Amino acid sequence: MLEGIVRESIGRKASKALKRDGYLIANIYGKGLENINAAFKVNDFIKEVRKKTTLAFDVKIGDKVLNVVVVDYQKNPVTSDLKHVDLKVAQKGVVSKYMIPVKVVGTAIGLKNKGVLIQSKRRLKVKCTAEDLPNFFELDVSKLDVGDALLVRDVVAPKGVSIIDAQRVAVVGVEKAR
User: Fold this and answer.
1) Angstrom distance (rounded) from CA 156 to CA 134
2) Exposed e or buried b for every residue in 160-178, given b needs 16+ CB within 10 A?
3) 3-state DSSP assignment of residue 44
4) Which end of the chain is less packed: N or C, by CB atoms within 10 Å?
5) Are the CB atoms for 56 and 90 separated by under 8 Å?
6) What are the C-alpha distances in Å from 18 to residues 14, 23, 26, 152?
């Protein structure tokens, strides 16, 4: 389990000192909860995120254990070092909005016909409870030819999950190569 510390001071000077010591600044929030300003060791955070098998994972801040989902992160544009992360608490029984990754499987027919596979949506916005939270959406593109696309309405959502994105938006498609 990933362990972090609660930041006492949230000023620029304190944040710089923590970053210098190898910490990652994090904000943890949820519906009806007090925001928590936290910090994690950068390497520990990266290891935990890479080895997790579900979208939500547990973190320990002080004496609290929270089940969280990564909402957003910021990287240094030059060095690609992780600078900041936003975590949302996945509360049981509370309907909330999440961003779910889209995984593409199969090889499209259109790739043999001089087409290029373009994935325009990497994550889909959904509304559900923490219990119904899917880890990812899997799309099979093996039947797509040049000019074909899979739209948001073609994505099958599990029971209890509703997709918020517009139904007419393309998620993945095959376009003719120029």
Assistant:
1) 11
2) ebebebeeeeebbbbeeee
3) helix
4) C
5) yes
6) 6, 5, 11, 42
